[in-house]
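REQUEST ID: PR-0412
SUBMITTED BY: lab tech R.K.
PRIORITY: routine
TASK: structure prediction, single protein chain
INPUT:
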Amino acid sequence: MDRRRLGPDGPVVTRIGLGLAAVGRPAYINLNRRRDLAGSRSVAALRGRAEELLDDAYRLGIRYFDAARSYGRAEEFLAGWLRAREPLPEPVVCGSKWGYTYVGRWRMDAPVHEVKDHSLAQLRRQFAESRSLLGDHLNLYQIHSATRESGVLEDKSVLAELVALTRAGLSVGLSVSGPRQAEVVERALDATVDGVNPFTAVQATWNLLEPAAGPALRAAHSAGWAVLVKEAMANGRLVSGQDGGPPGPVGHLADLRGVGPDAVALAAVLAQEWVDVALSGAVTTGQLESNLRALEVQLSEGEREGLTAIAEPSALYWATRAALAWS
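STATUS: complete
OUTPUT:
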């Protein structure tokens, strides 16, 4: 599998990584979750599923794993997998995030699943928690869903703490979400404390339904930042669609290539030269193996152009996403 470096001095990673958002807690917003996670969603059951996925990902060549403090027990599951299998024949790179706290208490019907706090105290507390679990495997630490409204990119105390983490050898980045992703990335490119910008990576949503952040992500990549893409399948909408099948152009190309629509959606992400890592959010080994077939799909310029027809206005895309049920 091709590899890229996470920023100018960061670790080298595979172009497809495994994100653990959907297996670290019982409820999430992906479509068809009841089908994909049939059976128990106890801590033990999801731990076993996470370990099975991590084993399969490692066997298939994936060397980047993505977690967050708010992904339930995702960091704990990843840390346990690492301890049980060390020393690995080839090292892995782990990224995590701070800024949200998981408050769902492992309940499917929790009224609130996560709470945002971008304060310095939260950063210090959650970094200590992440480091205690992942140790030296923690290579990239990101603000979880930085926004203009939270003020985190203007908080000099937070930025100074992040600069200190970079000087201690950690790569620092931010994740973004929502219709103002591009604006936040542009602001982050100019965010400094004492003339130093702490960031060398950004993780954003980019997919065939929501490509609006592309120019800002291209600018970040040109500035030397690593670009990681999440939600490449639009929380399942590019696989299942609204009528039970993928959007027409995606399904057509999938049939032509003999792959799943998920592979086409991921291939479209990887075709962007400014993308360093595309994250799989698989919850079964079958999904993961299907996702990795994206590496076999080389889209022509005409095919890529045809796929742009399904893009939605950002406001519509994010309103639709916000309406997805935790299940």
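NOTES: DSSP finds 13 helices and twelve strands in the chain.
REVIEWED BY: pending
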